[in-house]
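okkk here we go again. third time trying to get the zinc ion bound version out, last two times i messed up the smiles copy paste (missing a bracket lol). double checked this time i swear
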Amino acid sequence: MSPFTFTIDAECPDSWARAGTISTPHGTIATPIFMPVGTQATVKSVSPEELREAGAQIILANTYHLMLRPGSALIAEFGGLHSFSHWDGPILTDSGGFQVFSLGHLRKLSEDGADFTSHLDGSPHMLTPESVMQIESELGADIILPLDICAAYPCSSQEAKAAMERTHRWAERALIEKEKYRPEQTLFGIVQGAFEPELRQESARFTANLPVPGLSIGGLSVGEPKAMMWEMLRYVTPELPRDKPRHLLGVGSPEDLVAGVGLGMDMFDCVLPTRVARHGGLFTRAGRVNIKSARFRSEHGPIEEGCDCYTCRNYSAAYVHHLLRAEEHLYYRLGSIHNIRFMLRLAGELRAAIIAGNYSAFRDEFLARYAPAPEQVREEQREKWRAARLR
Ligand SMILES: [Zn+2]
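finally!!
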């Protein structure tokens, strides 16, 4: 029996939303699903037990960060990421490509792979489609991604085409190389094509025809307007096979989750929920609030009335507000738990709405109530984080 299966449990009659079940060697995942990101083999400030309690079913870890520190060979010595980090559920690792292009200091990009220097100590490294398969086999995740090229936004049509074609050639090389390693790991394909509708369609068709059990949509949410991202999915989704799960790479704010499901996406990952939590941004059904704000100073109720997370069940908003004002460590844990639970409860509600046949009504009602951060604020935050990471 294949270590990886995907079955569709329900489909929405008037959108592309579907509810499904993914099975992996480390457990099953009910979709649509949000995957918390554990960049350094830890979802920042939250333990695996707390993740479980918040409803996490699968988490993501970053190959780029882990290959540089502590190194994939060391993690392999400990039996892989599952036992090293004490998370025994499904794990997905990315290829490291995105971080090489955005974080590392890329030296040379060639048909072979990407030469770069570490953002930690300036040491030289190279990622190739083949070396990424080896590294990911040492990390031991259930779902792994091949090295791809995420074109910058904006970029020329020629650059977009070249990046897409190389991504396709690298996917074929990764598939051959993967044969050498662990059959229980599942390699997804990655759709690229930047913001060119024809390229997106071509990439979707090419990747769908590879012998891969799942597909990730890459190269979106890289600074383009939201409307442009959704437009690209309208071209991509119809080209994808119905029976393979679809992962929207690096996308996962509450409003993105709700809208992305309707465009046929099953899996979402993003650092945003935990990152904004650490800066005081907490999710509620009415939108993101800043817990630092004076209006919470003497708020006896929880962050959000009715929230079933550990934080809201046990602490007043005033206490959480105080912890952040005092920069107490406990704040980062309590704030992160609330946002992770919010995302996972939302994914569960989306699934229930699809099964009940009322996804579209759920989406419209959610989006009418939820006030997202304005694009201007989002862009400023992105810039700040980028600068902080490079320091
Ligand atoms: Zn809560």
